[in-house]
């Protein structure tokens, strides 16, 4: 019976799952100590009504109950946190939610911290322990501060998505070079990024670089690369491809960069 209830809850939006607390004691107990494999929390779902103060409190209580009260031996397949920072002003509270997910061996972590109002000038800086999460296979970071001070230990990471992040190439390069098993890399609207060097990723099959307006040069040495998408405005950018003999699809949107190909790449294209 419990497995059936969990299957039903897994199909519902998080806001609707929270409302199941009202159904019965059995459902209330199940949701409070939930073993749902996927948890997706978006503050906009909870803050739609005029009673905003009540809804903020409700949203915080829901996230707390699903994460902090979750049994530590109940693994977590995916956690999505899409928040407006002025709705959940205590950043230490967000840290505690991420810590709870990491303790439960989360595999996919999707963070989108949108600053607005008073929080507009203060992007979220997530806990450094994310970079030592050995179970994470998919990591998506948007509208956060990318600061890497220590070592990186993400041995299981396969897919990396970076969006709307303000940083130069150093932290991005360090992150990429420390995760050799990445097979999908998506970089979008990263302000301050002028050079991107992608190498040492033997499994990389898909690379997308979108709307990085300050980008001047991209160097790619990826022997398994099959799909490359470059989407940019009118800003000039050099794209250098080396050892990409398995490249099958090359897509340019809105502009054609200065493209350099080595012999091995040209040979496979005929």
UniProtKB/TrEMBL annotation:
InterPro entries: At1g61320/At1g61330-like, F-box-like_dom_sf, LRR_At1g61320_AtMIF1, LRR_dom_sf. It comes from Vitis vinifera. Residues 78-243 form the At1g61320/AtMIF1 LRR domain. This is At1g61320/AtMIF1 LRR domain-containing protein.
């Amino acid at each position: 019976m419990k497995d059936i209830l969990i299957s039903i809850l897994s199909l519902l939006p998080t806001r609707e799952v929270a409302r199941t607390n009202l159904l019965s004691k059995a459902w209330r107990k199940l949701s409070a100590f939930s073993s749902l494999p996927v948890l997706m929390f978006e503050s906009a779902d909870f803050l739609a009504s005029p009673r905003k103060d009540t809804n903020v409190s409700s949203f915080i209580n829901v996230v707390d109950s699903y994460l902090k009260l979750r049994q530590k031996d109940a693994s977590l397949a995916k956690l999505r946190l899409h928040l407006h920072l002025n709705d959940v002003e205590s950043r230490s509270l967000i840290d505690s939610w991420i810590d709870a997910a990491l303790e439960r061996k989360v595999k996919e972590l999707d963070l989108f911290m949108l600053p607005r109002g008073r929080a507009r000038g203060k992007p979220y800086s997530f806990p450094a322990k994310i970079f030592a999460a050995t179970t994470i296979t998919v990591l998506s970071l948007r509208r956060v501060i990318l600061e890497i001070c220590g070592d990186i230990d993400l041995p299981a990471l396969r897919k990396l998505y970076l969006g709307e992040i303000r940083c130069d190439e150093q932290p991005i390069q360090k992150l990429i070079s420390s995760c050799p098993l990445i097979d999908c890399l998506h970089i979008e609207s990263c302000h301050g990024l002028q050079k991107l060097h992608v190498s040492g990723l033997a499994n990389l099959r898909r690379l997308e670089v979108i709307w990085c307006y300050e980008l001047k040069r991209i160097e790619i040495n990826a022997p398994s690369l099959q799909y490359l998408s470059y989407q940019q405005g009118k800003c000039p950018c050099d794209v250098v491809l080396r050892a990409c003999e398995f490249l099958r699809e090359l897509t340019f949107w809105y502009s054609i960069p200065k493209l350099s190909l080595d012999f091995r790449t040209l040979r496979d294209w005929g």
